[in-house]
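Supplementary notes for students who missed Thursday's class. We covered one full example, reproduced here. Read the sequence, then the structure, then the short commentary at the end.
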Amino acid sequence: MSKKKTLTADEEPVVPLIENLVSLGPERLAKMLMKEAEKSDALSRRINLSLAARDSVETLAKHLRRSFKNCIKEKYFIGKGGSFEYAGELDDLRATIVEKISPQAPETAAALLDEFIELHTKAFYVADDSYGAISDVFRQAVQDWGNAWSRCKAKDTTALARKVYDKHIANDYGVYDEIVPAFGEALRENGLAVLEKLALDELKKLPPIPEGDRARHFDENWSVRCRIGHIMEGIADIRKDPDSFIEAVRVLGRDTIHGVEIAERFIDAGRFEEALEWLSRNTGVQRTYEIPYLKAKCLIALSRKNEARDVLWKHFLETFTSNAYKEALSLAKPEDIKQMQREALTSASKSNRLLDALSFLAEEKFLREAATLVLERWKEINGSVYTTLGDIAKKLAKDYPLSSVVLHRLMAEAVLDKGISKYYGYAIRDLRSAERLGLEVTEWHDFKNNEEYIQELRGKHRLKKSLWERYEK
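Structure (token representation):
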């Protein structure tokens, strides 16, 4: 007779099939659910929402409005640790409107979502949203609000445009950042024209931007100017008009800092020459790493494949990015690939971006070259870059244990040199990994073997008694 298997602590319990749960019967399941609801406020709220959803839309709407009031009447301030649970409570309300009311009564859903989003100022007053979980709920609600309005048959797009404008201009907490694209379908061209006129009329009232590169005055006028520009950017994107997008970013005075964003819109419009021009003129610093790839995309579309390859290859030699390497090789002639690979390996061995070069070699499986580079230039390696070095050490461990040992030692020493005892566990882990890998090393070259290295390290860090006590356990 086979023995009954005992569930160990490491094993996950088997999730019962829905058919098995149904077989328990509704009354028994209801009692089990009620028992759990007594322990969980979140489950209790969801049960009440589900029960209310069985009734009419009007009844459910009343229940939701009561819930709106309750969720901002917290008896104590919610710290950032509790913000996720609070965000979950808010999201349950949002989801109920979207799933239970919007399909049947979009007008009612739109009104409820308007009321719900208005809660955001009070929600931020009763809770710490440092993690952004609460903001995310309200931003999603803005998207849902626009979707609900797009399904409303009878609507005044002029009045709706004014509402969208007012919300965006008074957007102190950022939850209405994407309200224009969210309402694009609902506004239609008539509403967009009204929204554009409102923005331009307000823009005319603002003082001009100072000439040249003089410091901007980040006052209320500048804040309004930013919001107007954002509205106009949204309108341009809905219309898929890159020229209007340029006019929108010029609201803030300098268009070239948005060169990448402008180029993307020209690419989407199939205007690749203009996209290349804007990529070359870009003065922004946020997305410069994307420029070579966007240039290559334009050049390929213009049947200038060799130029695209050269752009990507130049970027690779400057950064040792694997994506650029692969894309450049994919555009190369078969007879040129071996020469390009040799150039890549030579450049990596001499690069002053040592960690980038090592990461590239390891990722592209040039393990012999990576191992050699570690042994030749280990003194230049910053051992505190744990994630990168740990990944490289893991890839080298099987075939090149000495190089892996060197990397583990560097990571351990970086921790010990900082002298922060709570991190000693990481150092011990790397020392033990190095010791284990050292058993596979047959030739130590100029490096100390396990015994010699640990003896030297003990002398250097002899005062770290807690470290050595933990290491010897």
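Commentary. The chain is about 70% helix and 0% strand. The longest helix spans residues 184-205. If anything here is unclear, bring it to office hours.
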